[in-house]
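Let's sit down with a protein and look at its sequence and fold side by side. Please make up or recall a protein chain and show it to me in full. Label the sequence line and the structure token line clearly, so we can match residues to local backbone shapes. Go ahead whenever you are ready, and we will take it from there.
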Amino acid sequence: MRWDDFRRSENVEDDRGGGGFGGGIPIGAGGMGIGTLLVLGLIGWALGIDPRVLIGGGDTDQAPPGYEERRPTGAPGDRLGDFVAAVLGDTEDRWKEIFQQANRPYRPPKLRLFSGAEQSACGFARAAMGPFYCPNDQRIYLDTSFFRELEQRFHGCSGKACEFAEAYVIAHEVGHHVQNMLGILPKAMELQREGDRAAANRVQVRVELQADCLAGVWAHHSDEKWKNIEPGDVEAAMQTAAAIGDDRLQRQSQGYVVPDAFTHGSSAQRVHWFSTGLKSGSVSSCNTFASADL
């Protein structure tokens, strides 16, 4: 993947090694015990929205006690931080163009880089939760150690081909922000509150697969602009999408698959919807809520 031409975003907040608590709350505050955090961590490894929000445990109106805003620091100086700022910058530019076609403004999210632990407006975040989007403060939270885990633990990619797979991870989280701006996310959360756990999981699967498709839409428009996708890139992204499917993660963790417990979709579904967005480049192709197969 070529990304040298991407504009660097000024919406990156680099809190790696900075403690990240912002005045914070201790583990277990607000009823979030260590056992709960471990369960949420297993869910979060698949990428997505902070799972506490989607399962109804997060307050979507206000930040928790001790939460502090930080000012954007701009593009970090190291190569990994530069890569994140570049990908985020290109998502900003491509989504701004897409929204303009519909005569709508696009307000980009912030992206907080952290290491180990971080206080978000959705609650206390740990690296084990993986990257997530918090709708409360419209921020993406990313511990970049996830990229190492992606290669070493999930075998989602290898070598330079990982860059496009890592860009897919960031674009997926941006996809949740797009859902939020379009009003899809609040409606999905309302639907979740109306049903039981199995029904809520089915809604979450549609939300996550749509974010996969929107990541594909970004990749389509980015490649159309820059011709930046190189041989092996798409295969690496597909491999990554497959590696973090619910069926594969469940089989690895417990030895069997429980479809009613899916929260992000199967490997095949994740590959399908990312491919759909990549091929079409159209937001309208990403209507997972109208799909009869889910």
